[in-house]
Design brief:
By secondary structure, this protein is of the alpha+beta class. It has a single domain, classed as Endonuclease/exonuclease/phosphatase (Deoxyribonuclease I, Chain A, 4-Layer Sandwich), CATH 3.60.10.10. Helices cover 25% and strands 27% of the residues. The protein is built from six helices and 14 strands. It has a six-stranded mixed β-sheet. Strands 5-6-7-8-12-9 form a six-stranded mixed β-sheet. Strands 10-11 form a two-stranded antiparallel ribbon. The longest helix has 22 residues, at 119-140. The chain binds one DNA strand through residues 9-10, 12-13, 34, 36-37, 60-62, 112-114, 152, 166, 169-171, 204, 206-210, 218, 220, 250.
DNA sequence: ATGCCATCCAATGGATGA
C-alpha cells in the first residue's frame, strides 16, 4: 500500500497538476491538504474517473482536507475530536482496506501558528494537544496507524536549509517542536527518519525570493507511523521533483510504502 | 526583509499562508 501526503494549495488551481500526477504515479492512498474548497465544489467525478474513492472535509476558501483511495474506505471521521467549537477543516480519518490488512489513516493540516506569540500560536498549540490525545486513542486500537500531513513543524535544525531564519517562527519555536515531540513520545515514528539521516531533505519551498532555485526549503510534511505500521514499512520518499514542474504547489508529496 | 509570490473570495483590494 503506497500512501502519499500532499498539500496541494488549492484544488481548483492544482487540478491539472494533480490529475496528471495521479495518472502518472497511481498512488493507492492520497491524503490531501489545503483543498481550499467546500465539499460540493471538489472535483469528485474526475477523481472517480481515475479510479479513486473520494472523502472530503472542506470549508470555504481556506484549509480543507481529503482522502483519495483506490482501496475501499470505512469508518470516515471528519474533524479532530476534542473541541466542538472548532470550525476549521484540518483533519480526516478513515480505515483503508488493504490487500493483506487494514490501516487506519489520518490526514491532517496542522495550523501554521504565526505570528507567535499570539492567538494563532495559542490555537496551534491547543490543536497539537488535541492531536496528542487523538494519537494516543488511535495507538490503543493496536491497528497500524498512519498520521500524515502538513504538520507545519520543522522538527530539527537539519530540517531547514537556513534554520537561523526560523528561530522565532511558529514552525520552529521550541513550543511547537516540543509538542511534536510529545506526539512521537507516545510511540510514533517519523517514517522518513526511519530510513534517511542527515540534512538537505525538504518538503516545502516558498514561492518567493527564489526559494526553490536556491534550495531554501524546510521539511514540514511528515508521515507518522504507529509501531504496528512501522513494522510494515518497506520504503519512504519525498517527491521533490514535483516542485520543479508546471504550476506546482509550494509543497511536494511525501510517501510511504507499507506491506499491507 | 517590511510578504519578494500564490491562492481564494469578492471586487479592481483584503486575508491568509510559512
Amino acid at each position: 500500500m503506497r500512501i502519499y501526503t500532499y498539500n496541494i494549495n488549492g484544488i481548483k488551481a492544482r487540478f491539472e497538476a494533480l490529475t496528471r500526477w495521479l495518472a502518472e504515479v497511481r498512488p493507492d492512498v492520497v491524503l490531501l491538504q489545503e483543498i481550499k474548497s467546500v465539499d460540493e465544489n471538489f472535483p469528485r467525478e474526475a477523481m472517480q474517473d481515475l479510479g479513486y474513492r473520494v472523502e472530503t472535509h472542506g470549508q470555504k476558501g481556506f484549509n480543507g482536507v481529503a482522502i483519495l483511495s483506490r482501496l475501499p474506505l470505512e469508518d470516515v471521521v471528519r474533524g479532530l475530536p476534542g473541541d466542538a467549537t472548532d470550525e476549521q477543516a484540518r483533519w480526516i480519518e478513515a480505515t483503508v482496506i488493504g490487500d493483506s490488512q487494514a490501516v487506519r489513516v489520518a490526514g491532517l493540516y496542522l495550523p501554521n501558528g504565526n505570528p507567535a506569540p499570539g492567538p494563532k500560536f495559542d490555537y496551534k498549540l491547543a490543536w497539537m494537544e488535541r492531536l496528542r490525545t487523538r494519537a494516543a486513542a488511535l495507538l490503543r486500537t493496536e491497528e497500524p496507524v498512519v498520521m500524515a500531513g502538513d504538520y507545519n513543524v520543522i522538527p530539527h535544525p537539519e530540517d531547514a536549509a537556513r534554520p537561523e531564519a526560523w528561530v522565532d517562527d511558529a514552525l520552529f519555536r521550541l513550543e511547537s517542536r516540543e509538542a511534536f515531540r510529545r506526539v512521537l513520545a507516545l510511540g510514533y515514528y517519523d517514517a522518513f527518519r526511519l530510513r534517511v539521516a542527515g540534512p538537505g531533505y525538504y518538503s516545502f519551498w516558498d514561492y518567493q525570493a527564489g526559494a526553490w532555485e536556491r534550495n531554501n526549503g524546510i521539511r514540514i510534511d511528515h508521515v507518522l507511523l504507529s509501531p504496528q505500521a512501522a513494522d510494515l514499512l518497506q520504503d519512504v520518499g519525498i517527491a521533490r521533483d514535483e516542485r520543479g514542474r508546471d504550476k506546482p504547489s509550494d509543497h511536494v508529496p511525501v510517501w510511504v510504502h507499507l506491506a499491507a
